[in-house]
Amino acid sequence: MSKMTRRSFLKKFTIGTLSTIGLAYGGYYYAREIEPKWLNIVEKEIESHRIPKGFHEFKILQFTDVHLGFQFNQDDLNKLINQIEKLTFDMIVFTGDLTDDPSLITDEQFAEIIEELSRLEANYGKYWIYGNHDHGGYGTETIKWVMESSGFRLLKNETVLIEKNLDAISLSGLDDIMLGSPNLNELIDDSYEHLFNILLCHEPDFADRTKDYPYDLQLSGHSHGGQIQFPFIGPIVTPALGEKYVEGHFQLGNRPMNLMVSRGIGTTRLPFRFLCRPEINLFTLKNLS
Description:
Layout: H1 6-34, E1 40-48, E2 59-63, H2 74-85, E3 91-94, H3 107-117, E4 126-128, H4 132-135, H5 140-149, E5 153-154, E6 158-164, E7 167-173, E8 197-200, H6 207-210, E9 217-220, E10 229-230, E11 234-235, E12 248-252, E13 257-261, E14 279-287
Parallel strand pairs: 1-14, 2-3, 3-4, 4-5, 7-8, 8-9, 9-13
Antiparallel strand pairs: 2-14, 6-7, 10-11, 12-13
Helix pairs in contact: 2-3
């Protein structure tokens, strides 16, 4: 074995150091500039004997947690709308957090946001609920105006029937759990037991309460999937009420209720995503009878 000279040691040390720096910078660049823009379309079938035959193959598109103003800009919104328009769906639901801080968005920017969101069309309606960032920054009324001007109907502790021919399913929306005034008791009662009931609730961990009501499906966001994930460690950035059910599909309660937690679109607190691509979600209802 040849003896390592000072020259060869310095050479290997320099190469190793530069490689480490390169990997660190590459990881930083990927997590900040590439993955946050690398949108994934997640499709999932929801099966139930309570889904009416008329709603078999009914498609619901969910998008959530855009967080405009924090890394996600107007051009990104335009690209997002373009991608949504390529999909086939019957109804659209937005489950909160349109901007990161409403007070930092100008009137001109809000006008552009309205123009983009107005492009979305769905035969059975466009619905939305508040997220915690929508109520923050004195944005409650402003975000309501933007969404309604874009053709979205607010469900704030409210339930509507979605009717198709002679069949119907219910769609409920809760006010934001953290900064709003949610009231589960205002939504559905035992008379809805026979229906297929969907709940929009921004914070996923609140499912530990909603599972005791006759819901079949809860759609949530808020958690961002943790934004940063590491193998064997899991999600890193998890907000309050988004720590237990961070992403994906869970079945809770005796009915049971299917909880679907989206990673959402944007980022907050940290401008990174790593092993946690942003997503929009497309659910297809399947009648089992």
